[in-house]
Amino acid sequence: MRTSDFYYDLPEELIAQHPMDDRVASRLLALDGNTGEISHRHFRELDQFLRSGDVLVLNNTRVIPARLLGTVKDTGRAIELLLLKRIDDKRWETLARPGKKVRPGKRLVFIENILEAVVEEVKDDGNRIIAFDFEGVWEEVLDQAGIMPLPPYIHEQLEDKERYQTVYAVTPGSSAAPTAGLHFTKDLLSNLLEKGIEIAEVTLHVGLGTFRPVKAENLEDHLMHSEWFDFPEDASEKVQRARREGRRVVAVGTTSCRTLESVAGRDKEMRPCSGYTDIFIFPGYEFKCVDALITNFHLPESTLIMMVSAFAGYDNVFRAYREAVDDKYRFFSFGDAMFLTKKQEKG
Q1: Which of 169, 186, 264, 346 might form a disulfide with 289, Cβ 3.0–4.6 angstroms?
Q2: Residue 56 — φ and ψ, nearest 5°?
Q3: Could you tell me which residues come within 8 angstroms of residue 75 by beta carbon, excluding any fewer than 6 positions away?
Q4: What are the pLDDT digits (tens) for 205-242?
Q5: Which regions of the chain carry the CATH code 2.40.10.240?
Q6: Which residues neighbour 11 within 8 Å (Cβ) at sequence distance 6 or greater?
């Protein structure tokens, strides 16, 4: 398939600029991957699509204030960094703008005498390796100097930074939120537990690649970004037991899905592990672990819409997207959600 096969028209006014006041008030489009049946509900009714014994897999990553505004020390020119991947205690791979001003050897100032940095290297893809200079605890310094990195299609300021975090976010490291999880409240999660649904937590730190367009026309030519994940023992035990007993594994978000499918692709037993994944899922991929997927609506020609098309069927997904546009659903990070069941292969 070609990248252009994943384009759809979306009126700009359907791109949600702010979250709903009540997280569970978002709409929920349910799509059966086998029958193609579509139903329209609200997220608070999620339990109608889950079964007792399902294992709901959450990504507990926490978004860091990864956008840094500063100056080049010797010229005073303004620069911007977006933290992408932590290399060690003081070094990060970053996206820099404007790149021409952020050359190797340049010293950068964000808060004088509190947070400064030196540009160490320019990688082949244009990303910069930056060595930061600071005293004290990195997380506290970053919280003082950094800004929450909202996606480029959101043009309104976010009054409450916690609305770009899931209610279960605990592990700092993401440059973007795992947005399917933004619809959950603690009350909803408690209600699901009471109804016999298990909850497992994994971690995948979401990187900038989430928003990068696919530039290659042939999908096989696309170079997928890598993201760090952790699949801990507790999640491993719950997922393994569910698979042995024929119970469903339900991924909350494409990030949880990427984690589960990455582990399943490396180890059929799905033992605890961590590392980097650059798995690229598009139609033709055979899912090895995930049975149902909760996700938001995704950008045209993105790797995420390619993943959901592989999961629930290309024709089904694009018919559902057309219906969502016609019915004026809210799209992208602060938008509405979908509940998808996997399209089973025939034969």
Answers
A1: 264
A2: -95, 120
A3: 101
A4: 998 766 677 889 999 898 888 899 999 999 999 999 99
A5: 67-145
A6: 325
SS3 content of the chain, % helix, strand, coil (to 5): 30, 30, 40
- The answer to whether 278 touches 225, Cβ cutoff 8 Å, is yes
Q: Are strands 107-111 and 38-42 parallel, antiparallel or unpaired?
A: unpaired
| pTM, entire model | 0.93
Q: What is the CATH number of domain 3-63+159-341?
A: 3.40.1780.10
Q: How many CB atoms lie within 10 A of CB 280?
A: 17
Provide the token pair at 202: 């994994």
The Cα–Cα gap between 227 and 279 comes to 9
What's phi and psi for 129, nearest 5 deg? -95, 120
User: pLDDT for 58-73, tens place per residue?
Assistant: 999 999 999 999 999 9
SS3 266: helix
Ranges for all domains in the chain classified under CATH 3.40.1780.10: 3-63+159-341
CATH superfamily entry for domain 67-145: QueA-like (2.40.10.240)
